[in-house]
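Handout for the seminar on molecular recognition.
Each group receives one record of this type.
Step one: identify the two inputs.
Step two: read the structure output and locate the region that could contact manganese (II) ion.
Step three: write two sentences on what you found, then compare them with the reference statements printed after the record.
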Amino acid sequence: MAEASPEELKAMWPSLKAELLAANHIILGTHVNPDGDALGSILAFSEVLTQLGKSHDVLCHHPAPKYLGFLPNLDRLTSTPTQKADLAIILDLEAMDRLGSLRDVFESTAKVVVIDHHQPHEEPGDIRIISTKSPATAAILADLWIGGDDVEFTPDIATNLLVGILTDTGNFRYPNTTPHSMHVAADLLEAGAKLRQINEAVYLSKPLPAVKLFGTALTNLRLAADNQAAWTTLRQSDFQRSGATEEDTEGFVNELLAIDTVKLAAILRESHTGRVKISIRSQGNIDTTAVARQFGGGGHINASGAHSDDPIDVAAEKLVQAMVECLESS
Ligand SMILES: [Mn+2]
């Protein structure tokens, strides 16, 4: 199945349910560095498996980031399976290496189902439920379950799925937002999704060290190409002085893109090994992958990432040149 509409997704549930019911033990998995969609999807799916009476493990290479610590059923998340599974469900994943240390566990499972909304990369899995028009994997799950008799839409399931949709659409600001996804969100609110709790946890709970580090990121801000390109650097000394971690830099690059003249923004972060991690964001049809490719990285048109083994100042120089060239050819 290349691309499924909401109706087609709904029609896929009975056969997927039959697979679930036939399994002895199921493992649920998602990608490393899990975000709101990855965790909201996997935790909602776990609750559905509980409703169906199925033994299962909820697996992720990394624990949840702090800002998602409120998610219902998060205590089910672990990095080690309790027993051998005969069915694997992988959510929000386009390439198997994004399972991290759990890759072997999932690849050695007899049957693998992948449910995802990314542009297909490797097309992993025996059964693939894919909708690249869905803004989030959580929205695909809602399409599978809403309006059916098999899943009781508890406030916890609704909250987990709404977190996935809200975080992957930037609260319905990104172009992946569809009328259908807003209808789905309305259904989730009616089912008791806790919007205020989501807002407070995801958007009003920034740790002070993260805010201080953002101040440093703004101090280090540089502009080029008539202020259309913005970038900043964060060194290990900046992390140490603020007490912030890599995880705390989530969203910084989007704030640079929010400057009125800026069309292309990037942030360079120095890891404790000295390796430099680069995140790039753009507006409109400016292709960030053209910049990321210069460093062997990649991503989507408006969001890419890469690494560099150069010292951070050298990496920054190469990055700016690539950004200016990208703007000139756009
Ligand atoms: Mn997603």
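Reference statements: Residues 37, 92, 117, 136-137, 168 surround manganese (II) ion (CB under 6 Å). The mean pLDDT is 95.
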